[in-house]
Design goal:
The protein is of the alpha+beta class. The protein contains four helices and five strands; from the N terminus they run H-H-E-E-E-H-E-E-H. Helix 1 runs antiparallel to helix 2.
Length: about 170
């Protein structure tokens, strides 16, 4: 495993590439795909999943790159969700003394609220996550939040425009 995955990723190139891509993506599904795919490929991890908070305050799986089945949702009272909400920092599986196949979690924070998180499996090489990896996770999380906020704002604007067109059409009929 270590022989095949020896090459390290280029931290700065990854940030630059994903930042440019996020700036051009307007649809949430495309953004979710970009985030999960980038993390899985560039970080060379076994699996990656993205969970986003729904209207009930629970976190639903919106995209995954994984061979095994992931948890479909996390209740707002879940231990991991609680820890991400309380500390608002990355949880590395090895820090929790969990089993070898445990995930690490990257919070997506907007206006001091947890809007979602990335669930990351171990590296293909079996190596631990280094400080450089954690910096990249953190930067990608901030970029993701910006992209998610932008996409939500655009969707809201599109909905308002559509509503105004409908009202205008009704006004012309009357």
């Amino acid at each position: 495993d270590k022989i095949f995955f020896r090459k390290r990723y280029d931290y700065y190139k990854t940030i630059q590439t994903i930042s440019r891509s996020i700036a051009s993506i307007v649809h949430l599904d495309s953004l979710y795909e970009l985030l999960v795919t980038t993390i899985k490929q560039e970080m060379r991890v076994k699996e990656a999943s993205l969970y986003i908070r729904n209207g009930d305050g629970n976190y639903l799986l919106v995209h995954k790159k994984s061979a095994r089945s992931n948890t479909i949702s996390f209740h707002s009272s879940n231990y991991i969700v609680h820890e991400l909400n309380m500390h608002k920092k990355i949880i590395i599986a090895s820090d929790l003394k969990l089993n070898k196949d445990a995930f690490s979690y990257i919070p997506l924070i907007s206006e001091d609220a947890l809007i979602g998180f990335l669930s990351i499996g171990e590296k293909l090489s079996g190596e631990p996550f280094y400080q450089e990896d954690i910096y990249l996770f953190d930067t990608l999380a901030h970029q993701a939040v910006i992209g998610i906020q932008k996409s939500h704002s655009l969707k809201s604007s599109e909905d308002k425009i559509e509503e105004m067109k409908t009202v205008s059409d009704v006004g012309r009929i009357i």
